[in-house]
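Bug #77: duplicate submission created two jobs. Keeping one. Sequence:
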Amino acid sequence: MKKILILIVVAVFFLSGCLLKNNSQDVIKITSEKVFENKITKNGKIVSLSTGIDLLESGDVDGAIKFFIEYENFYSQNPKYYYYLGQSYLNKKLYNKACYNFEKALALDNTQYNLFLNIADAYENANVQNKAVENYVNYVFKSNDSSKNSEIRDKLNKLSVQMIGTDVIGRISLTDRADVMKNSAIGIMQAFNPDTPLIFASVELINAKKSDKIQVIWNFIGNKGEIIPVNTSKFNIFGSKTILLSIKSPVTGWPTGKYEMCVLVNGIKNSSLKFYIF
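Kept job's structure:
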């Protein structure tokens, strides 16, 4: 009988310990997720950021925006607040407001590199192409995630445009394909794979004079903004025509990074195109 009693006591103690352990884990989990989201108003009302998030995820976007705006003073230092408000505006296709709030979230926590993609997407939808490009590029070179490289290259190349120079320089563009026989570039690009064998540049001249000296310089841009010349081409061409030139990949492949092709006329920088290899 004593043995049975002892076994019962031990069993109860063991089960109680398990329950206490599980409960304590649940408390820690809930606290870590919610404690910084809950606020108390002057009237004693408990406000939780998760309320706005739930409204957004349930499809009540207007309700979410109203909630977030009403309690902004509670969460002005919380990057999650601006992220979810940005998502709310994105759902309403209010892209400028979405950009503003995503950028606020990133300013509060600059380790959240995925925000660059949110910002880029919002700017792309707002047709602010240069800002979309800037943020896609920031994601590539500031995050350690290379899994999206192919996707982002495609996005950047869809956003590529011809640059228009001044005076005797017309349209300039870059690509990885060209019809050399026709002296014609095929497509417009600004993002290249490191194993791209040749990068072509197309430079249009408009009524260039015999005395005009055209120079094209290819630069690598270092992490601190330092300019490292890679290749230089000089031309004494006059009239109106298109120059097709190319630069060949190093044997080991292109170093990953930011590059720039500059066009100079008579030693003065006329125009330039940035491009990216990753």
